[in-house]
Amino acid sequence: MCGIIGVVSTSPVGQLIYDGLLVLQHRGQDAAGIATSSGHRFYVHKGNGLVRDVFRTRDMRNLQGNIGIGHARYPTAGSSAFTEAQPLYVNSPYGIILGHNGNLTNAEQLKHELFQDDLRHVNTGSDSEVLLNVLAHEIGRASEHRKLSPDVVFDAVSAVHRRCRGAYAVVALIAGYGLLAFRDAFGIRPLVIGHSRANGHDEYLIASESVALDVLGFTLLRDVAPGEAVFIGVDGSFSSRRCAGDVDGYPCIFEYVYLARPDSVLDGVSVYQTRLRLGERLAEKIRRFYAHLAIDVVIPIPDTSRPAAMELANRLKLNYREGFVKNRYIGRTFIMPDQTLRRASVRQKLNIIPQEFAGKNVLLVDDSIVRGTTSRQIVQTARDAGARNVYFASAAPPVRFPNVYGIDMPSRQELIAHGRTEEEICAAIGADALIYQDLSDLVAAASEGNPAIKHFETSCFDGVYITGDVTPLMLAEIERRRPASRTQAAAAASPAPALR
C-alpha cells in the first residue's frame, strides 16, 4: 500500500503534487518523493520520512514543469533504504521515472530475466525497480521501428501485463512525451482519474484515491479500469486502452476495511458507506448470536472503526461513547515496519477516558485484528480503567493468511488468527467475548455500493490468491526473506501456533 499521484496541468505542478501527497499520507509514511518534468528534463526530490519533513521551500522551488508524479512509500518489498524511495528512474529509452503501488509476486523471476535476457541491471531489492525496468525494456522494444506514440506505449504495457504478476497501480513520466498510468489486470490496487479545466485547457490528475481529487479541485471522471492504461500527453491529449485480457476486476477489499480514507470513493464504492454497512451487519450478528451479552456502551478504536461502531450502536439502540483520545501526531501503527515501534506507538497514540469504562460492560469495535498486539493492549487498558467486562468486535473477518499484493502482513506467524480458533483468539487478546464479521457480510457490504463488481480480492481472509501463482513454497520464501526485526518481534509478542 503506497500513495501515488500524477498530474498534467497548464501551470507548475510541484505544489499541487505536494498537497496531494499530504492527502495520501495515510497510505505511506516511510518515504516520499516528487518528480516533475520540463522539456526533456526531470527534476526530482525524495527522501525518507513524512511528506512535510522531506520537502522544504528550496526543494519545491526546484521542482519545475507542468507535469509530474508523486509517491508516498509504505515498504512491502525490499527495504526502507533511501535508495528505494520513489519515484525511480532509468535513462533508457527516452528517460522514464515511475511510482508504484502494489507488489509483484514474480519479482525474483523477473530480475533473472532482466539480467540474463534483457541486459538490464536492478540495483536494489525493490520490486518497483523491477517493474520500471520491465516497462522500459518493453517500451524500447515496441518503439524500435516506430515513432513513440500512445499506441506504442500501450503495446509496451500489454507486454508488461504478460510478464508481471501480482498487484500494481503505476504512474510514470516519459521525458518529453507525457504521463502514463496503468493498473494490473485484476485491478487489485486502486487508481482514479480526475479532470478540470483551466484557461480553456484540459488538466488531468490520477491518484490512488478520489479524496486527492476532491481536495485539489478536480472532478472524478472514473476509475482506471483493471488492465487499462491511460496516456496523457504534455499537450493535455488523453488516450486509453485495455491492455490486458478481459478479466473481471478484483479490487482489494481491505481498502474498504482499513486502508483508504472514509471520504474516498474507489471503484464506484463509497468507503464511508461501506463501513456503515459493516456496522449494520455486525449488529445483526450480535442480535442473532450474542444477545446474552449485557452491553452498556459501544466504544470505537479510533479512527477507522468509527462509522461501523456508530451504526452498530444505532442499530442495537446502545450508547455510543468515545473512550479513547487519539494523538494525531503519531502515524498509523499498522503500517509501521517494526513490531516494537507498533507496540510503543499504541501507548503514545491512544489515551483513555476512564469514566467511560469504570463499572461498565464495554463493547470495543475495531476495523480488524491483524497481529493482535494492539488489541491485547487495548483490552488490558480498558480493564485497568475499571471495565467489568470487555467484549471485542472486529468489522472484518479473521485475518488468517498472508497478503502478497501490497499489504504488510506476509508472515503467517505474525497473524494472531492463523491456526487459531475464534475462542483461542479471544483468550489471546484477553477479551470476555470476541465477535468477528462474516466474510460473506463483508463482501455484501462492499458490493452493495457497486453491484457491477462481481468479485473482491479477499486472500487475507480466505487464502484464495487470484493471480494463480502464489504457492505454499512462495509464501515460505517470502517469510524467509522477511527482515528479521519484524518477524522476531512479532514472534516474541505473540508466539505462533502450530501451522495447519
In short:
With 500 residues, the protein is an alpha+beta fold. It has helices at residues 14-23, 51-54, 57-61, 107-116, 127-142, 150-163, 210-216, 254-259, 271-289, 306-316, 339-349, 373-384, 422-429, 439-447, 459-462, 472-481, 484-493, and strands at 3-8, 31-38, 41-48, 67-73, 88-90, 96-104, 166-174, 178-183, 192-198, 201-207, 219-223, 228-233, 238-242, 265-266, 269-270, 297-300, 319-320, 324-326, 350-352, 361-366, 389-394, 433-436.
Structure report:
Helices cover 33% and strands 24% of the residues. The chain is built from 17 helices and 22 strands. It has helices at residues 14-23, 51-54, 57-61, 107-116, 127-142, 150-163, 210-216, 254-259, 271-289, 306-316, 339-349, 373-384, 422-429, 439-447, 459-462, 472-481, 484-493, and strands at 3-8, 31-38, 41-48, 67-73, 88-90, 96-104, 166-174, 178-183, 192-198, 201-207, 219-223, 228-233, 238-242, 265-266, 269-270, 297-300, 319-320, 324-326, 350-352, 361-366, 389-394, 433-436. The strands form five sheets. Strands 3-2-4-1-10-9-11 form a seven-stranded antiparallel beta sheet, covered by helices on one side. The protein has a six-stranded antiparallel beta sheet with strand order 5-6-7-8-12-13, covered by helices on one side. Strands 17-16-20-21-22 form a five-stranded parallel beta sheet, with helices on both faces. It is globular. Mean pLDDT is 91; it is low at 485-500.
